[in-house]
Automatic annotation (TrEMBL), chain A:
Its main location: membrane. It comes from Nesidiocoris tenuis. It comes from the Eukaryota. This is BOS complex subunit TMEM147. The lineage of its organism: Eukaryota, Metazoa, Ecdysozoa, Arthropoda, Hexapoda. Pfam families: DUF2053 (PF09767). The keyword S-adenosyl-L-methionine does not apply.
From TrEMBL, chain B:
This is BOS complex subunit NCLN. It is a single-pass membrane protein. Its main location: endoplasmic reticulum. SUPFAM superfamilies: Zn-dependent exopeptidases. Keywords: Endoplasmic reticulum, Glycoprotein, Membrane, Signal, Transmembrane, Transmembrane helix. InterPro entries: EF_Hand_1_Ca_BS (IPR018247), Nicalin (IPR016574), Peptidase_M28 (IPR007484). Residues 211-330 form the Peptidase M28 domain.
């Protein structure tokens, strides 16, 4: 039954990606190759991030005595801003029109992440004779990440628009910061409380949804005004 | 998602190489899968003595884990704390379950009286017969505590509960699978029992002098060989022997105190297996024509478990007035403040198993006695895993050794009077005793574990004896091929894996849940345009901009 369980987890991770690809109209544009390109840029970005982390942030034993080195953690999380540049590169480098452009970038990015971070984990973990809810939770988390990356992509796109209303610029900037520091904020929050794994998953989902809905609202507004449908 | 299979196959054809389809499943099959709980377990002792098989017969386990209250069939392995067992339930378990894993307290020295009672019951009764199911022992860890807690709550459905409850429970229950991968226990044909002998020749012509033999066995015994540290039985005897050797080698090295008595020391093994080491040594010494070592033996003194307050002198027949043993008994009673009681037990020739080591010598008509703190030869403390180094007080042991050494010295030099008359080297240092005790108890000392010729413990014992004695020899005893007196078995220790498993039904249930979830996601993605339209500001507003 372990292979069966592996199949369960795999379905949970990858079917939402496929559904998004299929029913959001990307398949009609033949955007598969573009998604792969976005994924390639994701890999490059991660490599750069790793290089920076390895060079400038030597493993500190700050968390040895239970104390979290706040400043170091914030600096480390700042490296995640590279993701925003990566997404910007994807958006500017990959041709596309309207909604499809954003979806391609987000889906390719999140898809590459899901393949690279989840597959090996499930492969080794979920196939063991031992059952652990962890793998189901990781699979669900990657679904949340899909929404998160599409949102971040949209925010980056909005931020680069010159015809964004002046009053919305600080809102978009703040949301962009919140999106790129998401893992730090959520992790810090969870470290100071003792929620179970399921609650923390719900908190992550809530955080992502809290960013995604306003973003969609702003995007819809600007898209309507410049005539993307 | 599978409606348009063309496209999926297109993806594979166009982008992913087709061979991945074949390679991935192969890698899947060979990829490793680890267990979360892994800890060492110690198998119950298995051995044969005089052709009678004793202890636990089998080793491999691959069964479902159940608690002591919820097991039903032979397909279950029961895990229980030793305190939760009783001798009655144990008997039932050993006959009807598939396997038994007994959790011992983390520190055996702090075991409660109930735990001690159950354990000694297993040790006394379990090791006299053959048991078919594998019985393992594990020391307490937090991991095991968690498993114990889980199997206690997730026990099988009670009779009154409804079918629905039973079903829910079968979905949600946390099952465990225990796997102990070992080979079938195999008799060790190369098992060697090594006894070490050495002597201090007396002043004069060696062959014409009387001899005193001091014997002790150095192996330990217990329900699991790998947990048998045997501090009192018989680490204390070994320490006493080594200290007596040290004292008398010092006395004999000076001309003034070199007595006309030969001292022979024997560190025998196999003491828990009907004193095989002594038996072999006696055969070697007596059954050859030019035997000189045991020609004029005053007495043979065996030391066995002398780490407690009392000392008893066990003899096979009461020593006659005027005999050397009687003399020795008189002196030791005078030396010890609390006195030494004589315990007289006739040798039961009908029983193949001898009670004390001196009986081996008494049978061969050598005057002999055993000194022990235990009054009864059936005392469970003579072979238990509870006999760890904390159970012996070094101060008490040092005092006992000093008394025995003083008695010997008085006997040899024929002095009577206060103990102060003896050399200052007669004192036994408590620190030295403690160091020896820690050393001897640092490794399990069951005879099956010491059968290797180059065993470091045996080597260091030989080294220590050669430092003080002359003519140090080892005699290796290998059991007879056709009719062995003793047979040891391997795989006394194994690694136990415990997997957290869910019933097969649970995976199906999970699939249903995942399908439902994916259906919801599908619907949301399909309705995305509607959600989007709701977000789009009304046309008026757009125009006004």
């Amino acid at each position: 039954m372990t292979l069966y369980h592996f199949g369960n987890c795999l379905a949970l991770v990858y079917i939402p990606y496929h559904l998004t690809y299929k029913y959001s109209g990307l398949s009609e544009y033949g955007a598969f190759w573009k998604c792969i390109q976005a994924g390639g840029i994701y890999i490059l970005t991660q490599l750069c991030k790793m290089l920076i982390l390895a060079t400038f942030f030597p493993t500190s034993d700050s968390s040895l005595n239970g104390q979290v080195d706040m400043f170091g953690e914030i600096l480390k999380a700042t490296v995640d801003v590279a993701d925003v540049f990566g997404l910007y590169l994807v958006l500017s480098g990959i041709p596309g029109k309207g909604h499809a452009k954003l979806l391609t970038a987000g889906l390719g990015w999140a898809g590459a992440e899901a393949v690279l971070t989840r597959f090996l984990l499930l492969w080794i973990g979920a196939r063991g004779a031992e059952f652990d809810w962890k793998y189901i939770q990781k699979s669900l988390e990657s679904n949340i990440n899909l929404v998160q990356h599409i949102t971040t992509g949209s925010l980056v796109w909005l931020w680069t628009r010159h015809d964004l209303k002046k009053s919305l610029v600080p809102v978009v900037s703040t949301m962009l910061l919140l999106a790129s520091y998401r893992s730090l904020i959520v992790d810090l929050f969870l470290a100071n409380t003792d929620f179970g794994a399921w609650t923390s998953l719900a908190i992550k989902a809530g955080y992502t949804l809290g960013l995604a809905l306003p973003t969609l609202k702003i995007y819809a507004g600007i898209a309507a005004s410049i005539g993307i449908f | 998602m599978f409606y348009e299979a063309d496209e999926i196959s297109e993806i594979f054809k166009g982008v992913l190489p087709v061979y991945l389809l074949f390679i991935l499943p192969i890698i899947l099959v060979i990829s490793p899968c680890g267990a979360a709980h892994e800890f060492p377990v110690y198998r119950m002792h298995q051995f044969e003595l005089h052709g009678v098989a004793r202890g636990c017969k089998s080793a491999a386990v691959n069964l479902e884990v159940r608690s002591i209250s919820s097991w039903r069939t032979q397909r279950h392995c029961v895990i229980s704390r030793i305190g939760n067992l009783t001798s009655l339930s144990l008997h039932k378990l050993a006959e009807n379950t598939g396997a038994l894993l007994i959790v011992l307290p983390k520190n055996l020295a702090t075991a409660s009286s109930k735990e001690r009672e159950v354990l000694s019951d297993i040790e006394v009764h379990g090791l006299t017969t053959e048991i078919d199911v594998p019985i393992y022992f594990a020391l307490w860890t937090p991991d095991i505590e968690k498993i114990l807690g889980d199997i206690d709550t997730g026990s099988s459905p009670e009779k009154g509960s409804s079918a629905w409850n039973a079903m829910i429970r079968s979905f949600s229950s946390n099952g465990y699978q225990i796997v102990v991968n070992t080979n079938k226990p195999y008799p060790r044909s190369d098992a060697v029992i090594t006894s070490i002998q050495g002597k201090l020749p007396g002043l004069g012509v060696e062959e014409k002098l009387p001899t005193i033999v001091i014997v002790t066995h150095y192996d330990a015994n217990g329900v699991a060989p790998d947990l048998s540290y045997g501090a009192d039985s018989n680490g204390s005897g070994v320490i006493a022997l080594l200290e007596i050797i040290r004292i008398f080698s010092h006395l004999y090295s000076s001309k003034r105190s070199h007595a006309p008595v030969n001292l022979v020391f024997l560190l025998a093994s196999g003491g828990k297996y009907n004193f095989q080491g002594s038996k072999k040594w006696l055969e070697d010494q007596l059954d050859v024509t030019d035997a000189t070592l045991l020609q004029d033996v005053h007495f043979v003194l065996c030391l066995d478990s002398i780490g407690q307050d009392n000392l008893y002198m066990h003899v096979s027949k009461p020593p006659k007035e005027g005999s050397s043993l009687h003399e020795f008994q008189k002196i030791i009673t005078a030396t010890r403040k609390s006195g030494v009681d004589i315990v007289h037990k006739k040798i039961n020739l009908a029983d193949e198993i001898l009670a004390w080591e001196h009986e081996r010598y008494s049978i061969r008509r050598l005057p002999s006695a055993t000194l022990s703190s235990l009054k009864n030869h059936k005392d469970p403390m003579r072979g238990t895993i509870l006999d760890v180094s904390e159970s012996v007080n070094p101060a008490t042991l040092a005092r006992n050794i000093e008394d025995i050494a003083t008695t010997l010295a008085r006997y040899i030099y024929n002095v009577s009077g206060s103990s102060q008359a003896l050399s200052s080297h007669m004192t036994v240092d408590e620190e030295v005793v403690k160091t020896w005790l820690d050393f001897l108890c640092s490794h399990p000392r069951a005879a099956p574990l010491l059968t290797d010729k180059n065993n470091p413990l045996v080597k260091s014992l030989i080294d220590t004896m050669s430092r003080f004695l002359v003519d140090v020899k080892t005699s290796a005893l290998v059991a007879d091929k056709r009719d062995p007196d003793f047979v040891f078995y391997d795989s006394s220790q194994a690694v136990c894996h415990i997997y957290n498993v869910k019933p097969a039904l649970f995976d199906l249930f999970l699939t249903v849940q995942i399908t439902a979830y994916l259906a919801v996601v599908h619907q949301i993605i399909l309705r995305m345009p509607l959600i989007y339209d709701m977000m789009v500001p009304s046309v008026k507003k757009v125009k006004s901009q």
